[in-house]
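Blackboard transcription, Thursday session:
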Amino acid sequence: MGASSLIVLMIAAVAFSGIAILISKFVLKATTNKQKGEPYECGIPTKGPSWVQFNVGYYLFALIFLIFDVELIFLFPWAVVVKQVGWLALVEIVVFFFILFMGFLYAHKKGALKWM
Amino acid sequence: MGWSLENISHFIDSWLYNEFDPTIARLIEFLIIAVCVIGLFAVLGLVLILMERKVSAWMQVRLGPNRVGPGGMFQTVADTLKLIVKEGMTPLNVDKFLFNLAPFIVMIVSMVVLAPLMFAKNFQIWDINIGILFITAVSSVSVIGILMAGWASNNKYSLLGAMRSGAQIVSYELSAGLSVLCIVVLTGSLRISDIINSQANGWWLFKGHIPVIIAFVIFIIAVTAETNRAPFDLAEAESELTAGFHTEYSGMKFALFFLAEYVNVFIVCAIGATIFLGGWMPLHIGNWNGFNHAMDYIPSFLWFFGKTFLLIFVIMWFRWTFPRLRIDQLLNLEWKYLLPISMFNLLLVTVIAILKWHF
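(Written on the board underneath:)
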């Protein structure tokens, strides 16, 4: 099986979920009213909108993650050839990690990794 | 050994291409794959949820489900029937499009990741040459589904839960990826079949000295966090956030999230079993020829599923052993301990691979 199996799997997933949801739609008739449609927050009436600003900490972590994730992508081709290249590959990756780690230490020093 | 899954799939393949013309044969094969994968999903959902409840009960010295069927075997079937007749309601203030799209995305991701997994000897859907990279890349898409569900629900609990699990999943992906890379360094290939074949004379966990054991431990911790399971389940901490990102979901849509969660546990454990424990490779010990021959008689798919379920059991064991972490402790653990350790560990593994110290 080639890449076409991915399309098959996607269609299978959509069909499975869709049929499951459709069956439950057919089995009973849904009713709705205002009380039923309210967000569930443990029974207390909701105050204000829920689409609000969230803690900036999440954003900082996402930024640092992005740097390291790109690094991970660079490491994959390196990892495949490291045995053929030998010691030179190790030296190169040590330099790469060193530069990356400096940035990581900078972020740490700035307090980006501290919660709140 | 005539009835291995490999032979059966080859037999079906050649029979189809003999009987029908290639286009129709191919379409029938696609249909078979789709039915098999959906069947696997259904069976995994039923088995894993029952196993979770039985293991929890066993750890807490109680009986667990024991009314429906012998030993409570059909409890999950009954639960599924109950969920079908539940009303799948959509609250009034949600973003309807994203709210309905999110379960589909989560399901698509967990089904597509199955493609390169090798379930038995030479039995897999697609032997892609970048298998490990494919798995790492596709499985990180599921965080989009989770964030989508949390954001679209228009509920403060859902939003908080989605944010927490988003931060958690992306953070722990790094150390999981780095520990997977350790094995790629030792094998020199990203193809799943190459990785398994390189373990013919011993699994990497035993062949690769202490750094690989460290990588394995880090991998298990990281995937426990990635699948949002206890002790890292603060995204859906029941006592604080009711159910996290799927608080507003009910009926079948909730069931889909629940199913995807358990299938994801299976998938990450299958990856762990493949790269560290040799996939379908039987346990071979040095020159014990009699022992090795006896092990060869156990079918390869039993080895694969046995190893996978062993890892699943370990992850379920964690749930009843460790208390839940706080979000700052969780992020500290990843960024200040696991990530530096796994980066340094990767360098150690590289030295071992270059010096050919591994067995």
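Lecturer's comment: Residues 89-355 of chain B form one domain.
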